[in-house]
Amino acid sequence: MNMLSQPARYADPGLSHRVRDAVFAACLTPEATAGPAPGNAMAVPALALEAQLKKPGTSPLEPEETALLLKWLNRIRNSPSPGVRDDLE
């Protein structure tokens, strides 16, 4: 919606396609093939966004911002979800 209401802020014509692809990947990629930590519901979306950010020339962020976001996504992907306990079976 922001791209329609504020086109000057979103001059990259490929942004909507990358966002769409990231959302599809997050929704359609099975967790078992992505390799997230067990019980981590946020790992697949984090992995999909991380993959998009690592593609050359696709990030609208500054390199420092991208590096920080990648660090956070890696932490999310490799840690169990809050409230999930491995000892409950």
Characterize the structure shown.
- This protein is mainly alpha-helical.
- The chain is 55% helix and 0% strand.
- Helix 4 runs antiparallel to helix 5.
- The longest helix has 15 residues, at 63-77.
- The protein is globular and about 40 Å long.
- It starts with a helix and ends in a 12-residue tail after the last helix.
- Residues 84-89 have low confidence and may be disordered.
Précis, in short:
Helix content is 55%, strand content 0%.
Tell how many strands the DSSP assignment holds.
0
Extract low-pLDDT stretches.
Answer: 84-89
Mean pLDDT: 75
**Counting H and I runs of at least 4 residues, what is the number of helices?**
5
Question: Which percent band covers the strand fraction?
Answer: under 5%
Structural class: mainly alpha
What overall geometry do the principal axes of the alpha carbons give?
Answer: globular
Helix content: 55-70%
Distance between the termini: 44 Å
**Main sheet summary:** none
Oligomer: single chain
Index terms:
89 residues; mainly alpha
SSE layout and pairing:
Elements: H1 2-5, H2 15-28, H3 31-34, H4 43-54, H5 63-77
Helix pairs in contact: 2-4, 4-5
